[in-house]
Amino acid sequence: MNTIAEHIADFLKDYPPFNNLTFQELSHIATNIRVLNLEKHDILFQNNDTLHDSFYVVASGIINLTTVADAEETIINKCHEGDIFGLRPFFAKNNYMMTAKAREESIIYAIPIAVFRPFVANNSDVLNFLLESFATNSRHTKDSVSSGNKLISDTSYYVDPQSEMQYIQSLNYNTSPLTTTADQIVKDVAILMTNSMVDNIVVCENNNPIGILTDADLSSKIATGRYPITETIDKIMSSPVVTVIENVSLAEAQLLMLKNNVTHLCVTKDGTNKSVVKGIISEHDLIVAQASNPGVLIKEIKRSQLPKDLKNIRERLSDLIQNSIQKNIPISHISNIANEINLALIKRCVELSILDLGSPPARFAWLSIGSQGRKEQLLLTDQDSILIFEDVSAEKYRDVKDYFLRLAKRTTSLLEKIGYDFCPNGHMASNMLWCKSLTDWTKQYNSWMNTPGENSNDLSSIFFDYEIVFGEPKIEEAIENVIFKNAINNPLFFDFLGNDALKKNSPLSFFKKFNVEEEGLYKSKFDIKTKALMPLIDGARLLILSLNIKGIQNTYLRFKQLAISDSKNAEIYLSCAEAFLTLSKFRTIEGLKNDDSGQYINLKELSKTDKEKLKNALAPMRDLEELIKSKFQLTQFS
Asked: pTM value?
């Protein structure tokens, strides 16, 4: 082995997935690697370029991965020393969907896919790394890899919520495949396939797959005259068959087809050829699955006319969320996807209501508040919303408000049919208290913020977490300006919010035991929403308002921004950001398991490791509490 190749192999061994290979294997790979020297701003590949025959590793320097939307370039990721990128040729046949540009002088190793593919086929750890890295586009350096090869951090934040989601979706496939035995005659089997209108048949022995016969086999081996039509199919079948488990993802199926050069995969009970056949996956199934990405779901939403169609899409979103959790996709990534689809569902309900009632008599804005306003709604929780319509003359006011109340009632009713429960506290646009003109809403916020003690009965902090779903953006902007104007030099308001943020009971006892429910339906369960998530949500909101930072509603992103704006306390904020994602994941898993909001965690069902992980996620809350106490004069409402 030459000196350069030895140096490359020595470099790669410290980084995943190469650290799962032997030095001898790395040496073989290294002898085939091309070394690329890029100047600052050099482009390695760009959006819509034809795929290369290699993927890449950063040896030194920084590579920016960017996309362009609405004429604006957005950085998706920054790849540093040891990071891999350009994995699309492993998984897809379409062109690149981003640009790789050198941020500074950089040295890049180009690894030929043909050389590396055999090592993927023979090492599941390498395969899993490539799948997860491609699905999340997250950075993986030797410092960021946790124990147990759990390569994806929950703190990764993916800024494009639609681009790669199809690669972690589950597949729909034929669960009643045609089967036969090896001693059957080709002619008879071909007639059976034709009559059944399928292009494949699984060859079994004692119900276990030993091979597969496809149209391609018939074309290349029978139609060409290589074998007679009277031959038994064991002579022309493809064997051994490539097998997978039942919950295989699109990415895994696609990679297995590529690396084994096959067009069909056999689904078995345990994923091996030693168990019963459960289905067959074809290339056509992959094409169909790729049509079920979030962008396509949103198009379906826009075309839907009936609540049952929208409900079906929301149920498909739940399946997608569950599968993503199982694949260890970062919760922040999943939240982005869910938010886009939830937003489209609510918007479509407003549109359908307008189609029923006729054009609105004035411009308006429908705002989601609460968890959807923060882009954090993963589970089917209750709906929270407000409606703001532009100011109209006094003689028109009653009729205009009546229209928007009817619009809101139709919309909330549609959402309830989809699966979003009515808010038990009545925080919905269908409530006349929360459906009013811009002037009335301005008075409402002025009152809440300037005299909180006198008007606190109907004040809920969720009114300060909002996202426009439908209507006039300038109306939302006007409300935002009212809020931030009132926040300036307003110690009374922050006194109120600060006390509200700290009033929740501590999640842990003095002896570091979980404070569980002592009675009622949820006795002995841990209220993760009230005792763990809400203090973080309330704290992030309080601090972001106090610093007059506009446009950030999401709790995780609020903490990330706070770490930048208040750098001396950055460690606390970053710990809170990570804790929020961890706690959100616990809640989501619990909700999916029990088909509910996931608010109450059954600690008895958690492993010792998960209990420790949950307990560790609660640790930053004490630091946050002390920080709030030090920053605000919490006196009058204490």
From this structure: 0.60
